[in-house]
């Protein structure tokens, strides 16, 4: 169908966006890349009275590294991140982002839009969780820093308030002896992930894991960090037994989102396999660096 | 009560403008105001890729873009590909030569996606082609001859043969 009628505002400044949001509350929706919102409008599942176009606001599409912090502006397209230099965006993040939809979607879809939409299969959720992400949200009341761990509440529901806009995502990019990997399974290229796992491991020179971050998307109710699995990895050397134990922790942590028992079993199996692969890949990177 | 806007677009090199209802998608504007009926509406929710055009050089699903969001943009569609003498662009010619189309409904979207692909990877492998075209659905061909068309077009553009 064609989208239902709405009013459209196209402000030049973030202040105007925030004023409008504050004034119109639940009657207004932000539109950025439109790759998630436009299909909802086409199906008329969303009928906002007012759309506020964010794309005219300057300085929201920056992508920069300062020490260990990678700052991704809300209007940065997935494609810009995918094509960024290795020195700016680590390969694991670029590889996760490359799984988002198709090129045409990545050319328009934005990081802020993905985060705000709260899709349980969103690759950006896996990245935000595994890289200790902080979502910077702004409203007329001020600025709020929301840890990724506290951001994804329920399917399609985030901690963002009605009058807030995502301004940027801050990620902690590892330095030192570390390895990371992202693995995903989807039925076809561009399909929503059946499951995706992102692993970031830090080790000491002896090859013992000092810190582990492991996130899962797709299989569970929402994107999650698997803390029991992370604890199981910490302080251990990386050997095959540890990997099996890790995948069991990951699997135990997931509340499957599938429709029936067969789908649950499939999701659990896929998550376990992806977790083992991600951790093994990260571990191999560490070994290579330690040896070299 | 519908709200309308004036929007300027440069379509296939020609500057133009239209007055549109703000809820009009770029796909509908291109079809109705700029006579670019090569822009096909397959699903109108971004799944099939038949409406793919190049916006400022990058492939996009025009059914997922509000015209009012892209005021001033440069759009390329299949209509702009053949030269003034009517000679087909190498990608179009390749699709013709390999029978890479049957009903032709998905073809404009395929072609615009391929144009972008070949700018990025000059001689993609069949696997790379299938991955790049995964967002363009075809119900007729089974994709085999589409992949052959891209291989042929790539060779033509890279080596002139």
List the helices and strands and how they pair.
The complex is a heterodimer of chains A (292) and B (161).
Chain A: E1 7-9, H1 14-24, E2 28-31, H2 37-42, E3 50-53, E4 63-66, E5 69-73, H3 78-82, H4 91-97, H5 103-108, H6 111-117, H7 123-130, E6 134-139, E7 142-147, E8 152-154, E9 157-158, E10 165-172, E11 178-185, E12 195-203, E13 209-217, E14 224-225, H8 227-233, H9 240-253, H10 261-291
Parallel strand pairs in A: 1-3, 2-3
Antiparallel strand pairs in A: 4-5, 5-10, 6-7, 6-10, 8-9, 11-12, 12-13, 13-14
Chain B: E1 4-11, E2 14-21, H1 26-32, E3 52-55, E4 58-61, E5 73-76, H2 90-97, H3 107-120, H4 126-132, H5 144-159
Parallel strand pairs in B: 1-5
Antiparallel strand pairs in B: 1-2, 3-4, 3-5
Number of helices of chain B: 5
- Roughly what is the average pLDDT of chain A, rounded to an integer? 93
Strand content of chain B: 15-25%
Secondary-structure element series of chain A: EHEHEEEHHHHHEEEEEEEEEHHH
First and last CA, distance of chain B: 57 Å
Strand order of the largest sheet of chain B: 2-1-5-3-4
| H/E series of chain B | EEHEEEHHHH
Structural class from helices and strands of chain A? alpha+beta
Oligomer: heterodimer
Radius of gyration of chain A: 19 Å
What share of residues are in beta strands of chain A? 25-35%
Describe, in plain words, how this protein is organized in 3D.
The complex is a heterodimer of chains A (292) and B (161). Chain A starts with 6 loop residues before the first strand and ends with a helix. In chain A, the strands form four sheets. Chain A has a five-stranded antiparallel beta sheet with strand order 4-5-10-6-7. Chain A has helices at residues 14-24, 37-42, 78-82, 91-97, 103-108, 111-117, 123-130, 227-233, 240-253, 261-291, and strands at 7-9, 28-31, 50-53, 63-66, 69-73, 134-139, 142-147, 152-154, 157-158, 165-172, 178-185, 195-203, 209-217, 224-225. With 292 residues, chain A is α+β, with helices and mostly antiparallel strands. In chain A, 35% of the residues lie in helices and 25% in strands. By secondary structure, chain B is an alpha+beta fold. Chain B is built from five helices and five strands. Chain B has helices at residues 26-32, 90-97, 107-120, 126-132, 144-159, and strands at residues 4-11, 14-21, 52-55, 58-61, 73-76. A five-stranded mixed beta sheet of chain B has the order 2-1-5-3-4, with helices on both faces. In chain B, strand 1 (4-11) and strand 2 (14-21) form a beta hairpin. Chain B is globular and about 55 Å long. The mean pLDDT of chain B is 97. At the A-B interface, helix 2 and helix 5 of A face strand 4, helix 3 and helix 4 of B.
